[in-house]
Amino acid sequence: MVTASFNELKLLMANTSDIRNGLCIEHNNDLWTIVEFQHVKPGKGNAFVRTKLKSLTHGRVVEHTFPAGHKIYPVRVERRKHQFLYKDDMGYHFMNTETYEQTALDEKLIDNPGLLKEGMEVDVLFHAEKDLPLNMEMPAHVIVEVTYTEPGLRGDTATNTLKPATIETGAEIRVPLFVNTGDFVKVDTRTGAYIERVKK
Hints:
With 200 residues, this protein is mainly β. The chain has one helix at residues 6-12; strands at 24-27, 30-40, 48-55, 61-67, 73-74, 77-88, 91-96, 102-105, 121-127, 132-137, 141-149, 162-167, 172-176, 184-188, 194-198.
């Protein structure tokens, strides 16, 4: 007879009070990660949890409301360190830094793929039981070189006016007027937003 450990039973019995950012759950025959959540206790009526869920299979983000105390079904995932190798028609190729095994991911499973630099270390999320790659997480920010942008005006330090700039990965971002070709900038990988200019 197979018996589940206490922790496994606890996972199977999870409810909305266990919801947290980054938790992976099974819902409506798909796998989702919780991007945002908010416990709401209205003056009248029952409490509920408003969530933003991202599909780990097709990348779509949806909003969903769970009644307070509703059962949820967490999925055990493993984060494994990988290095980004290259992109081709098959997808984005990563190598496990411990086993050297290679994994290809579809673009829809990657947030802001245009910020991926060759050799960058990332976390690839795997479904622990099925050993299936689900998603990829980049570091919170990346430093990239600006390969082309219109020249800035000398002495113009305004940060609220932005212009387009092409970076070394080929992606286009928006940067302040004082940033020039050849500058290095720090970019938020979740939003693709410019953070600051950095000295290399």
